[in-house]
């Protein structure tokens, strides 16, 4: 057989197989998946338009809430269904349905779910792979397909694909789902942090319980806490009136002072005084998400963004060979929020002298700086009573107060814990804390072998005597030159 004859035979066989395949297709009922969807939309699947709504992974729970609210309004009886078949993870819903119309490669199967947090102690199931038949706002039949992240397949984020006969129907459904997402946002009014969370599959945003602190739980020099409250809480309480008079709402607060003096504790108190306000806490590796945090704060205002140990990313550029890329991200985040937005940036640092001048000395970024100093004698007495909690103090506090000059709030918190342990070791219970309990705990903490412990708690015995009356090298820091222990510096706009 020559080449021409072989080619003719091959073409004839190909035509025969195609006809046979066509006859088999016509004799077999169409796949169930294809029938289910095509009957709903009332036409050929190849004619449908696909519109996608996509978000990062941490918005998955909000996307689910938006879709749930949409279905409740347009098709409350609708039920999700899944798809089974090899390679479905790599195929968008439009192609998946198109393939199912020709070969029974994909079949109706179970819906895939994952668990996502909706609060510190609550969680819901969200769809990671599933479809549902519903209707567009104009009444036209549409198909919603939802996907969650699938790291093993290199697919990040979450999305909804909307299949409809017309683009206008699909885009109208997309717009309403997005509106409902924002209306039912689970992050609104919560205390959040960005970072990895191994629980509930939420790899970016975590929830924390809101602290419950009273003014008497915060030991600061007289008038300092009141000033902080006026700047953060007072502005929030009069937001509408300030807007009406053309005044800006965005504000920046810097809390600075030695480690352990109560900066974070003060922040926690502010959280407790702002119920219903979204608080986003950023520290350590979470700083890389400062742009996302600022965007979330703008969306969920009134909101507070807390940046702990901000000097780690906002160190003065003159002190480094290379600037931190996060420094400019921080500037963009703070500057990108309009003045009329009810957003507060609260920054803490142990090293105000190394802060970047463009942060600390730039109007519109920081407008109130407050030093949280080491406690004086009166504050040390108050801290001893505070951390004794509900225990009775049968002790003369004055010797303890005299010996703990220069110690921080963290030191006293640990001191009381050790005093309780001394009482437990002696009697197996704690009826009251006595001079003996407190003295034994103090002797243990003041021993030379505990020098590193004292340093880690923020205390530096002897440093105050060596440098009394002098500022540490490099102080005052840019933009807070008027700050002194127990005082505040308010920057004019």
Structure report:
The structure is a single chain. This protein has 493 residues and is α/β, with parallel strands linked by helices. It folds into three domains: 28-183, no CATH class; 207-373 and 479-490, P-loop containing nucleotide triphosphate hydrolases (Rossmann fold), CATH 3.40.50.300; 377-458, Orthogonal Bundle (Helicase, Ruva Protein, domain 3). Helices cover 38% and strands 18% of the residues. The protein contains 17 helices and 17 strands. It has helices spanning 3-27, 32-41, 60-74, 93-100, 167-183, 224-237, 239-244, 263-272, 290-299, 325-335, 357-360, 377-387, 397-403, 409-427, 435-446, 451-456, 463-466; strands spanning 49-55, 82-84, 107-109, 112-117, 123-135, 141-147, 158-164, 191-194, 205-208, 251-256, 278-282, 303-307, 343-349, 368-371, 392-394, 432-434, 488-490. Strands 9-8-11-12-13-10-14-17 form an eight-stranded mixed β-sheet, with helices on both faces. Helix 12 crosses helix 13. The relative contact order is 0.09.
What characteristics describe this protein?
Helicase, Ruva Protein, domain 3, 493 residues, 38% helix, Rossmann fold, alpha/beta
Task: Quote the average pLDDT.
Answer: 80
Name the CATH class of the largest domain.
Alpha Beta
Question: What proportion of the residues is helical, as a percent range?
Answer: 25-40%
Low-confidence stretches: 463-493
Main β-sheet, spatial strand arrangement: 9-8-11-12-13-10-14-17
What topology emerges from the helices and strands here?
Elements: H1 3-27, H2 32-41, E1 49-55, H3 60-74, E2 82-84, H4 93-100, E3 107-109, E4 112-117, E5 123-135, E6 141-147, E7 158-164, H5 167-183, E8 191-194, E9 205-208, H6 224-237, H7 239-244, E10 251-256, H8 263-272, E11 278-282, H9 290-299, E12 303-307, H10 325-335, E13 343-349, H11 357-360, E14 368-371, H12 377-387, E15 392-394, H13 397-403, H14 409-427, E16 432-434, H15 435-446, H16 451-456, H17 463-466, E17 488-490
Parallel strand pairs: 8-11, 10-13, 10-14, 11-12, 12-13, 15-16
Antiparallel strand pairs: 1-7, 2-3, 4-5, 5-6, 6-7, 8-9, 14-17
């Amino acid at each position: 057989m020559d080449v021409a004859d072989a080619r003719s035979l091959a073409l004839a066989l190909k035509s025969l197989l195609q006809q046979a395949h066509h006859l088999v297709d016509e004799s077999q009922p169409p796949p169930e998946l294809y029938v289910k969807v095509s009957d709903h939309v009332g036409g050929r699947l190849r004619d449908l338009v696909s519109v996608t709504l996509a978000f990062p992974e941490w918005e998955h729970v909000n996307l689910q809430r938006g879709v749930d609210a949409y279905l409740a309004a347009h098709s409350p009886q609708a039920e999700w269904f899944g798809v089974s078949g090899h390679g479905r993870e790599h195929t968008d819903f439009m192609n998946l349905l198109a393939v199912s119309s020709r070969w029974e490669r994909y079949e109706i199967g179970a819906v895939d779910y994952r668990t996502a947090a909706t609060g510190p102690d609550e969680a819901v199931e969200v769809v990671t792979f599933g479809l549902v038949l519903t209707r567009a706002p104009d009444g036209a039949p549409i198909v919603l397909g939802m996907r969650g992240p699938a790291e093993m397949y290199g697919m990040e984020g979450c999305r909804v694909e909307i299949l409809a006969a017309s683009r206008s129907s699909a885009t109208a459904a997309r717009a309403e789902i997005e509106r409902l997402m924002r209306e039912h946002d689970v992050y609104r009014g919560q205390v959040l942090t960005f970072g990895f969370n191994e629980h509930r599959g939420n790899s970016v945003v975590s929830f924390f319980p809101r602290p419950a602190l009273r003014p008497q739980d915060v030991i600061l020099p007289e008038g300092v806490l009141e000033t902080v409250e006026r700047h953060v809480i007072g502005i929030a309480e009069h937001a509408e009136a300030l807007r009406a008079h053309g005044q800006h709402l965005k504000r920046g607060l810097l809390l600075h002072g030695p480690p352990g003096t109560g900066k974070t504790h003060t922040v926690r108190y502010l959280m407790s005084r702002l119920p219903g306000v979204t608080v986003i806490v950023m520290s350590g590796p979470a700083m890389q998400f400062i742009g996302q945090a600022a965007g979330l704060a703008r969306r969920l205002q009134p909101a507070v963004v807390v940046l702990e140990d901000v000097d780690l990313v906002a160190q003065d550029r003159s002190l480094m060979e290379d600037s931190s890329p996060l420094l400019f991200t921080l500037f963009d985040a703070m500057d990108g929020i309009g003045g009329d937005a009810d957003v507060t940036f609260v920054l803490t640092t142990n090293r105000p002298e190394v802060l970047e001048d463009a942060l600390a000395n730039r109007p519109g970024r920081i407008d109130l700086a407050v030093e949280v100093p080491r406690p004086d004698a009166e504050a040390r007495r108050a801290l001893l009573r505070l951390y004794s909690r509900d225990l009775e103090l049968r002790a003369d506090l004055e010797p303890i107060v005299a010996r703990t000059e220069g110690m921080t709030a963290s030191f006293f918190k640990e001191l009381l814990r050790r005093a309780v342990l001394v009482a437990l070791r002696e009697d197996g219970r704690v009826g009251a804390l006595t001079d003996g309990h407190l003295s034994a705990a103090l002797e243990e903490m003041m021993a030379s072998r505990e020098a590193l412990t004292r340093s880690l708690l923020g205390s530096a015995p002897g440093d105050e005597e060596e440098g009394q009356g002098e500022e540490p090298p490099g102080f005052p820091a840019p933009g807070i030159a008027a700050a002194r222990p127990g005082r505040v510096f308010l920057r004019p706009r």
